[in-house]
Amino acid sequence: MQGETDQRTRAHVPPQAVTDPLADTIDPENFTPRLLSLLSNALVWRESHELRRRFKLGTNDWRVISALAIRPGASATDVSDFLGLNKAVVSKSVNTLLDRDLVVLIDGPRGSRPMYLTHAGAEMHQSMLPISMRGQEIILGDLSANDVERLNRLLRRMLEKTRELQTLESEAPGK
User: What CATH code is assigned to 31-164?
Assistant: First the structure.
């Protein structure tokens, strides 16, 4: 039955379409960027689902709350840089959090707009924190303290190399 379906589908494929797998491809079970991406996506989905169900807020909203818990008075640009998120994504979350009275903006020097959690925002942070920490437990649960330290050191080094590469590529002629 499956073979018949494949033949019928291929009958409608244009002649320029490549219908067989290429010979030189990645090994999907051992391609580390794919595995990291799948893990990240699964963790974000789990977290987002739970945050929306319990608090009617998403992962990006949580990230902004968390960033302001760490860096009170940060601007939206500071939060965007800290989280590695697009400014438009941060702006949307900030507006959601403003509407929910979880953050406040004040007028700062030279037109800056420092943000702070409200008391309700601080309480929301404490309520949301265990959901995020559960993701940490999933990642680190089978690792020793030394493994965790080494993993985090390696991840920070990889992030640094990635940022350096992005800087070099953005400065390259023709960019």
Answer: 1.10.10.10
